[in-house]
Amino acid sequence: MQSELLLLAHRGGMSRAPENTILSFEQALTDGADAFECDVCLTQDKEPVMIHVDVKKNSIQEATGALVPVSDLPWSEVKKLKMVSTNEPVPHLDQVLDFVKSTSLYCWLEPKTLSIEIIDIVVDKIQRFGLVDLVGILTFYSRRDLLTHTKFLNPRIKTSVLLINPLSNFLRQVSYIGADHVVFGWNGPNQFQFHNAVFQSFTQKVQKLRASEVQVEGGYVRTKNDVQWLLRHGVGGLWADDVPKIRSYAESYFM
Q1: Are the C-beta atoms of 217 and 239 separated by less than 8 Å?
Q2: 123 and 150 in contact (C-beta within 8 Å)?
Q3: Domains assigned to the chain
Q4: What's this model's pTM, rounded to 2 decimal places?
Q5: Do residues 108 and 160 touch, judged by C-beta distance below 8 A?
Q6: Per residue in 213-248, is it b (16+ CB within 10 Å) or e — as a string?
Q7: How many Cβ atoms are within 10 Å of 142's Cβ, its own excluded?
Q8: What tens digit of pLDDT does each residue of 193-230 get?
């Protein structure tokens, strides 16, 4: 397999271990992932914790079974929660940063509290732990103020923008916010495949990004077709719930 291809574990690789848990991050390391992603949100007392929040409903019920929003719970209560159908606790960001420091496995944090305040808190933590080169911030272009504020606080911290609109000018959007990485899709690349079938422009847009030294990734992929299509069009990284499975698909493509 091409050595430069990156394999990245979505929520730690949620098909391999309970999402957003230390166990899942350890599994990502065991699986040979190049990086992992996890969701970060703030408790009532402004402690950063790792839970996937349904931002439209402000709910953590799907992730933990709790009926009360995390923003209404103090850390003393949140740390008693378990991920649904598991005995795995909700990690604090400090635990994740300790893990990153001990393993040097790169971590992408996706803010699920949609406020500048969370960036202030998270960036301060990253700096205090001395992990500016090992932890980045990732979110959708519609929430780009979180990425630009990250760069304002510390330009060395990498940012990654999720693009879901195939009609957009990718390079212009990425350049506008100063992102280091771009991820096409976040629930598979289907909309980009459909658009490219008509306009045949995706490869050219990817080439322009790579020429500007932007790391280009696709996410998150589930099928062999997704993997083959993205690799055929020059994407250099694949986000996955199951890193070993996606690696096998990529290896078969390069054979």
Answers
A1: yes
A2: yes
A3: 6-254 (3.20.20.190)
A4: 0.96
A5: yes
A6: ebbbbbbbbbeeebbebbbebebbbbbbbbbebbbe
A7: 11
A8: 888 887 789 999 999 999 999 999 998 999 999 999 99
